[in-house]
Every structure is written in structure tokens, then in C-alpha cells.
């Protein structure tokens, strides 16, 4: 009997030890739809089950006490229940949709990306150098996108009814104060930078991030390459000059150098300029860029520097002078930029950097001299925290310092001096919030204070995006944007206020199967624009922030590189309705740089048998307004429309060598940008006029490009 009692006790204790607890419940999504196939298990054990078609699960476990129940399913965020396991019965669990960085919604209103890894990319870096008419200039390539206007006698970026000064350029997040080469009147300029040093470009036509300020219309962000893919040497020889570049890699560090020399004298001797232009000394420049990179386990340091020296001596026709007017220019520009990023283990990152530039101009015209010097710097720090896949936060502060001096000496040696110096301090905060794979928002604020103006501004920014299907999405953006008056104004009067523009943008974008379509409607409301009571800003002018205006329109973009084998093309169209009362305008009117219609068609075709890529770019702009003093209406007449057809051809000699040819305005359109009127009327009381046309409306050049990689090979075919 005693032995039976012992055996019974052992079996009773063993049964108690092996007692099972039933875990059960139902798993649904946010809309209470059952989720089938979700994995449910006790963390650290093999005890678990999968949900059935009704989302129900049930299993037994021998675990006791406080446990963690894990519920996981592809496309959903994992769910955790923590508590005493005896209470894990009849659970009601809702899974939250996971954010997919590859197929989820993106915030793209007003923004064009150009980078090989960008899912909203519409231009690749090589588009800049292979687009007919661009001639390797990133600004010329961007002018084939909607929202931009081709002002062929200027060459800078004019965006959605804004002046060229309303667009700012940044390298690795730091301001570039003089992004374009110096030039003479009516001679188009170019960007200072080589496109080969940048991994990607972000061009915002409006509604841009709170991280950036001091731009009423748009920002252009250039990001240098983090890690070059190979060591190589690039040699280019052109009809107007040449270039040499080299990239060296050692360990986690690398150095890239680019130099170029341009001299228009041989070209001018072959094809002399017309349109009332004579060169005493054609444009000549030497420039160089250096990028040093050092990559750590969790850090990246970059140092960028660029220099440029340019000079020219030109004589141009002027209706108010019997002889041609002489203009001489010598420009020197030096720019430094350093940036450092560190990524912490807790999903914090810190980015800091500084840039500084020195720019001098020595100008001479008709016995008068203007010597100017500008020193400007930018210091910035930004911290970012990724709390999870749905929420991140960026905060930062920055400081801009400007010092400008100008001396004017007239033909009688009378000297006048002017200038300014001041600081602009700014702080910003911004967050990306992904509520689901279909809906996201960006919320930001920015505050700025200028010591020069003694003025403060506060700018809210917001963007919303909704993705109704797999390939298409809608975006909406709003923001206030401020900018200090230009140097030509504040050097005479610093007691002014910020100019302001408010942006409203509605966007639809489709990306899929090699095709991209964008449609974007916008409205910009200008306020506090600068006005003055003289023809140009000068001593004695009366300045005031009494100007205002608006710009509205529709931008369309279509790109297709799949429908026809070997053919890549895109079409851009912009409709612009804008008027403003600013500068010396007598009333609100459409300015000369704002045609109502703009169209660009870019084609690139690879001819396999000829080992060649041929391209055509056609640009059209409707007539631009101008003011005729012989009529009572202000800015009421228009020039003829602008037309330009450019051609390029690139022949692949072998995997290392490319011969290329490019020509602009091959049909010889006589484009008129404006008219110059005499200061005084003739005998009949009429103000005589002459057409203003670009001095270099047509050009061509032949070049040879040779790449020598570290292994002696380079696949130029892939580049084309």
C-alpha cells in the first residue's frame, strides 16, 4: 500500500509539472479583416501556431509566469504581448501595416531627383552630359524639365516665374554663394561644377524642405559621391579647351581631382560672333575641383574645394553710343566645403559642415572701374533620429556670414565706396511621418534672423502624399519662404525686410515599367518685394518692400525608355501665368523672363551597328513680354517665340574612348530676347530700338573623352 501511494504521488507531481496552458486569440488588420498565415509563438520557445482563414490561432504551452507572445506577418509590423501566460486567452490583436521603403509612398511634390538609387528619379547623372544642347552643364540639362524657363542670353535657372536669384545651390547641404561663372551682359553663363563629381541631384521647383532657406522659388542640391567605384583617369580634348581628371583610392579614403581649361579664341577665329559683338580677348578660364573622402565604420568625412579664374574683353553694340561699348572682366573665385556625418547605434545621426567662398570681380567699361570683393561663409549642424519606420525627426541650426565691399572709380578718378556685412542665424525642425504605405506627411518649421536687416521670419512647411495604387500617387505641399534682398540693393540700403513667397502645390506622379509621368499645378503668392524709383539701384534711390505679385501654372512631364528599343525620350511642358510689381515697374505686369508656354523634347537613340548614340533636343518658349516706350501700355508687347534644335553624336571608339560632337541651334533660329530703346526720341518723336539677341546663339564643339581605369578597362558603353 505504501508503494502504491508513492507511485500515485510521483504521477500526480509529474502531471502537475506537465500541465498545459492554452494560448488563443484572433489576428486582424486595422480594418478588422482577419489575417491568415500570421505566425504566433512564445518568444524563446517552439510553442506556437499560424492563424487560419478566420485569423484565429490556438496552441498549448508548458511555459509559466511572465512571457512574451510574438505575432509576425510579412508586410506588417511585429506585435508583442507581455504578461502572465495564463491571461493569453481569446486575445484580440490588430497588426499595423509595415512601411515598405521600396514600394511605399514618397514625398515628391515640387521635387525632381537625379540619382541612380532614387526611386522617384526622373533624370540620371549621365543625362547631364548626354543631353543634346546641355554641353555638360547641369543647369542646361535641368532646363529641359518642367517649371524652368530657358533664358538663352542668361544661362541661370529661372523657375516658375521667379528671378534667377530666387534659386539657391547647395553642395552636400552647404550653400554655394557664387554657383555660376562670371560673364558679360548678354553672354550666357554656366555652372562652375563638373557633373562627374556628384552622385545625385535634387532639384526642387517649390515647396522644399525646412532645412533650406533664403530662396523664394527653388533649391538645387548637389551631393558629391561618397565612395568612388574605381580608380581612373579621364582625359578630354574639345574644340574650346580640355580637361584632366583622376581618382585615387587607398583603403577607406579617396581623392578626386578635375581641372579644365577653356579658351574661345580658336573657336572665335573659326566662327566669329555676330549680333553686335566684337571680342578683343575672348573668354578664357582655368578651373579645378578636388574632393577628398574618408569613410569610417559609422562616419563619413568630405572636403570639397573648387577654384575658377576667368577673364574677357569684349565690345558690344549700344543704341545710345556711336561706337561699340567696351567691357572688361576678371573674376577669381575660391570655394571650400567640408562636411562630417556620424551614425550612432541608437539610430541617431549627426551632420555638420562649413563652407566659405572668396569672390572678386574687376570690371572695366568705358574708362570706369568697379572692383568688388565678397567673402561669405555657412556653418551648419543637424541631428536626426529615426524612432521607427514611421517617424523620424530632424533638428538643426545654421549661421550665414556675409561681407561685401565695392569700389567704383569713374573716368575722372572720383571714387565711391559701398558695401555691407551681416549675419543670418537660422534654426529648423522637421519630421517625416508615415501613417501607412499609402499616406505620409512631412511637417517642418524654420526661423531666421538677419542682423543686417534686423528682421525675423517664421516659416511653416507641410507636405502630404497619398498613394492610391501601386505606381501612382498624389502629393500636396504648402510653405512660406523668405529671402534677403539681393546684394545690388542692400549694398545701398540695409534698412529693409525679407521678401516673401508662399507656395501651394498639387502633384500627381506615376512611375512604372520604364515610364514616368508627372503633373503638377502650383500657385505662388509674392509679398514684400523690393521696389525702387530709379532705372537701376543706385545712390539716392528710394527703396521699399512695397512690391507684390503671383505666379501660377501647370507643369507636365513624360519619360519613356521602354516602349521603343534603344530609344529614351522625355517631354516637358509648362504653362505659366505670372505678374508682379517690383523693382522699377510702374504697375503690375509679366516680367521679361517669364514666357507663358515652355516646351522641351529630348531624344536619345543608340545605334548598335554604328556603336553610336545620337540625340536631339528641341526647346520652345512663347514670346516674352517687353516694354515699348512708344506706346502708353507697360510691358504690353512680346518678342517672337524662342526656338532651338540641338544635336549631339557620340561614337564609342572602344571601351575606353569616346568621340563626340555637339551643335546647338542647328536650324539657325534668330531668337530675340528683348529690345533696347534709345534714351532720347528721334526727330519724329519715336524712340529707336535694336533687337537684343545672344552673342552666341549657335555653337558647336568636337571632343574626345578617354577613361583609363585602374585595371585598364572602362565600360563606356554602359555609360552611353
TrEMBL record:
Primary location class: membrane
GO terms under cellular component: cell outer membrane
Domain TonB-dependent receptor-like beta-barrel: 313-665
Locations listed in the record: Cell outer membrane
Signal sequence segment: 1-19
Entry keyword set: Cell outer membrane, Membrane, Receptor, Signal, TonB box
Domain TonB-dependent receptor plug: start-end pairs: 120-214
InterPro entries linked to this entry: Beta-barrel_TonB, Beta-barrel_TonB_sf, CarboxyPept-like_regulatory, Plug_dom, Plug_dom_sf
UniProt family annotation: Belongs to the TonB-dependent receptor family.
UniProt protein name: Outer membrane cobalamin receptor protein
Phylogenetic placement of the source organism: Bacteria, Pseudomonadati, Bacteroidota, Flavobacteriia, Flavobacteriales
